[in-house]
Design a protein that fits this description.
Chain lengths: 286, 286
């Protein structure tokens, strides 16, 4: 039988005992990541002092979140977003010059398989809502146009729902589109004015946060992902400056630089945008 | 548009911004639990400084763990066990007198629906392995017998696998049984000598920890859950004192009080046990 110190698991030693079993190589980051995660996890457990029944509830919650995630719904991204983790990761990695368009959280409703449309196309496939004409330009830090940049946009409808939340009510790919900028870096398309919305609270993550009294609203916005060779990909939102909930965005994704005025134009609306991209450093991921 | 401070999300403020949105009531523990969890989560992110791609790997890992969990397999319990979280929760809640049998981690292979057998029954349904006769007594702190206590036992086979890991190779309920102590608090049953084993590494949790170089062995043991009215339920392991891996149990569940000598007896083995239970405090969960 081993000596008593080898079995000396206690509140004071638990995280060190875990770390000591990992290889001490400095070349491999995974053991360091695990050791850091376990240190914080054990500190949290010592602080909260859950009973076994409490801990089983934590396991049940994680199990429910896992079962609520599928191809259509990414409940883990929602959890990361609502706990401010996604925004913090963006913040840590946002080292762009002040004049460049900042990134913000991608959110759980992105789809990569969106069809490409000609400039001027209408992404509102059901025609429901107040029309919005979007005119944009993509340029570099010097103001020079970026031609053939790929613009992927997605947004909620006038009731605040994305098409993948309402597969039976909205046409597939409703309010999603992919465009290419022209030689002058310009793009335009037609859509409808999006509505702000409550974050989905029909899954385990939304239910938990609502139960805790956490505000679950998102101000009205359009999503954009903009890719161009040799430039850092921009993944961002553009917010409607008239939305009353700008300061209490549930996922901490509002930045002053991303708020714009939607201009009234006859019965519809007009939005003018400029996206300013930064050249990718050599070897850096885009 | 709100003033700049309302949108002042930064590395320094992120966890406070989250906490400030929660109700400040002291009666409700959920907001406090969430605020504490977010404080540690954000501190970990600040420490590790993941890229967006790193963070997507974390989300993918959680998604994989979720999808690997079903009625037969609880990958979250395995994760909690291997990160030492389950052992720490047990440690925090173990406030028994020194002479009482301590709890340890329940583990992911427990099944509640095990059939009840008469005393002396054989739980080895396939007869494979060296026979082991278990003779036990359940008593209180004064040494008085606890009659009609329920003993649920489960264990790995001689190759180190539980029946619910090998539904096609082992009979259902192989090496599981439920017994009742007699009027003298005694029970006995026949089984086979269990083998130590590697923690399952075919799922995302085992794969990750193996990749990190973490040792994944568990010394040979029997599991017991013992219930009796008015007593705290004992959920524990009994370890084979001759196992060479006692000091490096992957889930930190070995305690010196739970290590026993398996005595040779002809061609088979004999194990004598005493479980000492503590009266439950009024109103406390058992």
């Amino acid at each position: 039988m081993p000596g008593p110190t080898a079995l000396n698991f206690s509140e004071a030693t638990s995280h060190d005992m875990f770390a000591q079993r990992l290889p001490q190589s400095k070349d491999d980051s995974l053991p360091q990541v695990l050791a850091a995660a376990v240190t914080h996890l054990h500190a949290l457990i010592r602080e909260l002092r859950p009973t076994q029944a409490d801990w089983r509830k934590v396991i049940e919650f994680l199990t429910d979140v896992g079962h609520a995630s599928d191809e259509r719904r990414q409940e883990w991204v929602l959890l990361s977003d609502l706990l401010g983790a996604s925004a913090l990761v963006e913040e840590i990695n946002s080292r762009r010059p002040k004049t460049a368009t900042p990134n913000t959280v991608r959110g759980p409703f992105f789809r990569a398989d969106v069809p490409q449309l000609p400039l001027g196309g209408n992404i509102s496939l059901d025609g429901i809502g107040e029309t919005l004409d979007v005119f944009g330009r993509v340029q570099d830090l010097d103001g020079d146009p970026i031609a053939n940049a790929e613009i992927i946009t997605w947004q909620a409808n006038a009731q605040g729902f994305y098409e993948n939340q309402q597969p039976d009510l909205q046409p597939e790919f409703n309010l999603r589109g992919c465009f290419r900028t022209d030689t002058d870096g310009r793009f335009h398309y037609r859509t409808i004015k999006p509505c702000g919305y409550g974050v989905p609270d029909d899954g385990p993550v939304g239910k938990l946060l609502r139960q805790a009294g956490y505000p679950l609203c998102r101000p009205a916005h359009l999503h954009f992902m903009i890719k161009a060779p040799e430039f850092e990909t921009v993944t961002t939102h553009i917010y409607d400056g008239s939305d009353p909930h700008l300061a209490e965005d549930a996922i901490f994704a509002v930045k002053p630089e991303l708020v714009r005025t939607f201009e009234q134009q006859g019965k519809g609306w007009l939005l003018k945008l400029t996206f300013i991209m930064v050249r990718a450093r050599r070897g850096a991921g885009t």
